[in-house]
Amino acid sequence: MNKKLSLFIKTAVFLAILCVCFICMSLLVERKSSFNKNQEFFEEAKKDHIDAFFLGSSHVINGINPLQLFEDYGYTSYNLGGYGSVLLSSYWQMMLALDYCTPKLMVVDSYMLENNIRYIDDPEANVSSDELHLNIDRFPLSRTKYHAINDMFQDRDEKYPYLADFIVYHDRWKELEADDFKRFTKDANVNRMMGAVMEYGIHSQEYTYTDFQAGTLEQETVGTAYLRRIIEECQSRNIQVVVVTLPFLAMYDNQAAAHTATQIAAEYGVPSLNMLEIPGIIDVNTDMEDAGHLNVLGSRKVTSCLGDFIAQNCPLPDHREDSGYEKWNDYIGDYNAELASMCEGNDDLYTQLMMLQLNNSNKTFTISVRGDTAVYSDPSLVRQLHSLGATEMLDQAVSSNCSYMMISDHGVITEFVGDSENEFTVETSDGVFLYSPASAIYRILYVNGDTENNYLYSDDHAYADVQLLFFSGGVCTSHQYYTCDHFTYDYDQR
Question: Which pTM does this prediction carry?
Answer without folding.
Answer: 0.87
